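Recall that a protein's primary structure is simply its ordered list of amino acids. Everything else, from secondary elements to tertiary packing, is in principle encoded there. The following example makes that idea concrete.
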Amino acid sequence: MDVLIVGAGPTGLTLGIDLARRGVDALVVEAGDKLFPGSRGKGIQPRTQEVFDDLGVREAIRAAGGPYPPQLFWKNGERVETRPMFDEVAADEGAPYTEPLMVAQWRTQEVLYARLRELGGRVDFGRALTGLEQDADAVTVRSADGTTDRARYVVAADGGRSTIRRAVGVGMTGESVDPSPFLVADLRVRGLDRDHWHVFVGDDGNGVALCPLAGTDDFQLAAKLPEGTEADLSLAGVRRLVSAYTPLDAADVTELRWASDFRPRAALADRFRVGRVFLAGDAAHVHSPAGGQGLNTSVQDAYNLGWKLGAVLGGDAPDALLDTYEEERRANAATMLNLSTGVHRGEVRRGEATVQLGIGYRESSLAEETRANPGPVRAGDRAPDGRNADGVRMFDAFRGPHWTLLTPDPVDGIRSLRAPESYGPGVFLVRPDGYVGWAGETSGDFTGYAARVGL
């Protein structure tokens, strides 16, 4: 096969979808016997919504969740104040999606899995991998059941404790974000309205938050526990926690559907590529959940890597194109880790900084800006939405696995159309992942760049 993707979380499923629509022979393998059951990564940032739009799942994702409610703070059993969860980010023609969506992770994965299957992709469940060897041509991966797979490339999307990352000897450098243990759980609760994210903070600074999970009947419990304590993940333990910090009685927690504990940390893999093996998602970077950056950064890893694998496997681009995955995504992940940690510690507000619309690759070797006087949109920037003089919407034109050339003069062999006036003067070559790869004065100048990327 061409690509073996290890892990059927949001990262692996997104990559599977992108490769399937490119006709790449890929298989997703998952150690568990089913998709992840919890709500853990529930925030879908606007940039990720744009990715999902391109992959054909945004409407299904929207239907699976809903907007974030305001936070309601309680003290001594009384309602104290209400605050918006996010600073408002104004939408405009170039950025039509600016409001984060709340979608329980298990629902996001259901939507992505359905899309993968629709495109002919598949997931093999119950496949725990134990090790691998790679040679000049491919990677041989061993499974616990004694079977082996051989693929031209392997992508480790198997989480923060990645078996594949350890197998290729890549370390992670990081730090503790908070010394306190945390607990997260999906519950059925009675006695609280579903119009607010209820926050209960004790005199010791610890406490719980109960958030109604959009698109479900559940609440997500997030609890900060005293240092030195152990999280009790049983129904009885969760009930004690809720009754200790909230006006609810233990019996008001009617069901425990999923629970996990963690200690917030920020860590970055030392490398994102070792030969024919790539690291993506939590296997490459581990975030505090504050600010909703982890899942979104992971999805965008997959979105960056997918088109590059497709170009190289199709024989159109040199293998060196794959080196730009680490170049672009490791630097981005480092920035997002600092952002997540800043949000966790109260140093950064959720809003313009966290919606990820400002992510770009101007410093990348794949960004070629050849104009003497660039306008507002430059090589390496996210290509904004908008309509051109012919009434064509950019996101509609970009949707799909192709490159797009924005030029007043049509060019044979590539999708070509005029840019909106908001882009400023020039010609723009938009990558399959929605970033401007090359910008120049005329469309006749991009042929050298096209050869580099297999266009």
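The chain has a mean pLDDT of 94. The CA atoms of residues 1 and 151 lie 5 Å apart.
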